[in-house]
């Protein structure tokens, strides 16, 4: 019961962060990305407090006995942290960096930690979000962003190909990455057909 209460509070905070970040998909959203990321990071302060509280509700050695209770919300928080870091620097957040943002351990031996499969699931959710962002970038007239997203997602896909995924739910999520790659490729292809990719490359200047 105690665990469930804290998990519900975490879910609420995750919803607030998601609502905030969804604003980047709107036309004017690209202008204030830094402001949205800063606000999201403030919300992660609440997440850290809530996770601190969660740690006190069960014996540290029984992490996996209760893991199912918070697994889903933790994966969602990984995705949100990864999305913030991507929007800030267009890089992939490491598991260690996510653990730091959430105020938990990366190392299993040290107690309440970020399970590797929860981290990977969150990253796969990021891929779907970026596929959507690529489409909405074009609508907003930002033609260079889809090209950068395409490079990032292809690198991500290459990384996942190196993994031997045994977990069924993770395997299914990974299968979805193929569709995200395809969706972004279609956006980039459409830009090249319309000659907008050249404009994007010139417009991007020295940007990544």
UniProtKB/TrEMBL annotation:
It is found in: Cytoplasm; Nucleus. It comes from the Eukaryota. Mg(2+) binds at residue 129. GO terms for cellular component: cytoplasm; nucleus. InterPro entries: Translin, Translin_C, Translin_fam, Translin_N, Translin_sf. One of its GO terms (biological process) is RNA metabolic process. Belongs to the translin family. This is Translin. The lineage of its organism: Eukaryota, Metazoa, Chordata, Craniata, Vertebrata.
């Amino acid at each position: 019961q105690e665990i469930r209460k804290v998990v519900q509070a975490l879910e609420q905070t995750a919803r607030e962060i998601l609502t905030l970040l969804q604003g980047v998909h709107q036309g004017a959203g690209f202008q204030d990305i830094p402001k949205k990321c800063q606000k999201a990071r403030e919300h992660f302060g609440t997440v850290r407090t809530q996770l601190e509280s969660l740690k006190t509700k069960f014996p540290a050695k029984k992490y996996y006995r209760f893991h199912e209770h918070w697994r889903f919300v933790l994966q969602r928080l990984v995705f949100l942290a990864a999305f913030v870091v991507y929007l800030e620097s267009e890089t992939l957040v490491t598991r260690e960096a996510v653990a730091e943002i959430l105020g938990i351990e990366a190392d299993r031996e040290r107690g309440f930690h970020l399970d590797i499969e929860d981290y990977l699931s969150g990253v796969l959710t990021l891929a779907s979000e970026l596929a959507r962002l690529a489409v909405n970038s074009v609508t907003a007239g930002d033609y260079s962003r889809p090209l950068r997203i395409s490079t990032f997602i292809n690198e991500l896909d290459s990384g996942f190909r190196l993994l031997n995924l045994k977990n069924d739910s993770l395997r299914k999520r990974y299968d979805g990455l193929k569709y995200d790659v395809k969706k972004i490729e279609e956006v980039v292809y459409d830009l090249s057909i319309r000659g907008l990719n050249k404009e994007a490359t010139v417009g991007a200047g020295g940007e990544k």
